[in-house]
Records
---
Amino acid sequence: MASIFGHALVGATLSKVLDKNQVKLLLVLAMISAILPDIDVLAFKLGYAYEHWLGHRGFTHSIFFAVIWSVMLSLIFGKTNKMIFFVVLFLSTISHAVLDAMTTGGLGVGFFIPFNDSRYFFPCRPIQVSPIGVSKFFSEWGVRVILSELLWVGVPCFTVLGIKAFKNKKQSKLNYN
Ligand SMILES: [Zn+2]
């Protein structure tokens, strides 16, 4: 994984940019969805190997899982805006796997599970892989992770959010005039 901060930031950015109505519930669900796939670290505890389809970066990191999860949440929580719930939540969930496929370590991501168990990385992998577990995170490794995520996740997200805020301001000025 990238760290939970990196993943959550991408979910928040997607919701802020795509949801015109800025629904708070959707923002929170997007952040949760972007972190959720790493729930599969529990598989280690249950005895599944990393490379097993239920192992880390397996099923919960797949496109199939992202579709099921986002359809379910949008049906439960979406009202007249089910479609935008689906789009934001699908992109947030799958953004997790996309970031993971750009990290320096671990096994690749099982994007096509359950149809194909192969694991994939992207050719470009600039993000330092985050340690699994809290104690290891507060270490020199953790610092390297945060710095690489600030650069590769933080800067793009904050740039997009900045542009969005600037545009909103301009728009509200125009409306006021
Ligand atoms: Zn992950």
Note: DSSP finds seven helices and no strands in the chain.
---
Amino acid sequence: MQSILITGSSGLIGSEVVAYFHALGFRVHGIDNNQRAVFFGPEGDTRWRQQQLKEMLPNFHHHELDIRNRQGILKIVKELKPTGIIHTASQPSHDKAEAIPFDDFDTNAVGTLNLLEAARRFCPEVPFIHMSTNKVYGDLLNTIPLYELETRWDYADPAYVNGIPESFSIDQSKHSLFGASKVAADVIVQEYGRYFNMPTCCLRGGCLTGPNHSGVELHGFLSYLVKCNLEGREYTIFGYKGKQVRDNIHSEDVAKFIHAFYEAPRCGEVYNLGGGKNNSCSILEAFTLTEIFTGKKQVYRYVEQNRIGDHICYYSDLSKMKSHYPQWIITKTLTQTISEIVKSWQGRMF
Ligand SMILES: NC(=O)c1ccc[n+]([C@@H]2O[C@H](COP(=O)([O-])OP(=O)(O)OC[C@H]3O[C@@H](n4cnc5c(N)ncnc54)[C@H](O)[C@@H]3O)[C@@H](O)[C@H]2O)c1
């Protein structure tokens, strides 16, 4: 039986990938220590999802381990010798990082190094898939000329008509401390691929979303927005007139791409992984879409000051992914995804 090791296995992407590979007949080992609750408090707690996986999946084995624990990571990879490693654990918030710079860097950069070196020592031939982020591009993206529509910004430069490609520079821009720790991880994952010829890849996520997110204000855009709508809680828009654009991809489509890479890995690759232009929306547009499914008007306030280094407009150019893995397609539309998030919160809240 093939066995896969997934870090951050109780989180949005980790738990989706756990369920996906389990359904394919894999033995699945998950590493998670509920650090999300430490980062974001009780609303970030992911134990509920860990419990669900434990109850539903007989071949899922949870390991309560911190990826910063170097000896622990070396030991578990040596013992399990998995046929693939999927690394989704992180401190995932742009804004949170400045308050916890050591925890942020130790988790995102050093935790990733611990896993890579463990893989190099004990299973260098197996695919190593790392969740990176579009924040590695920093605010250089905000220098692209834009035009303003009634409810969103869009690229005015025809070079970006299909979105942002992987060749966009990650250098000499402001990333946030989170973006910088993810750059460190992204570059070292590429390096283990290129220097040691290991089958590694970085998936630079746009907005990864889905029904199993424990969305909080500092992380999990759509999940948190829907939660606010259902609770009648005030949602705060930070700057850019609420027209800032995000491309949203359902966690199941992320899992499908991870599987495609696992089946036919390459060395040291980088892909922008988001919903693309078709699944993009601004905050104002997300309000309208959510209202359709909840029947409730979104309560919000507007603050003029944008979040430091926040992207004004981002959607991924998916052409490299599609050319390397032509069988992979986006299967979930944005409206489907929002309706699933609404149903999930309704089930969890009431
Ligand atoms: N969700 C998004 O919009 C988005 C966008 C771009 C990139 N990403 C990246 O994708 C990955 C997955 O994101 P997500 O939304 O599933 O995050 P998540 O917070 O839902 O899940 C991450 C999980 O990792 C666990 N974790 C954190 N630190 C840990 C540690 N030190 N040891 C063990 N476990 C730890 C957390 O408890 C949590 O369950 C992350 O690398 C994130 O940076 C996410």
Note: The first strand starts at residue 3 and ends at 7.
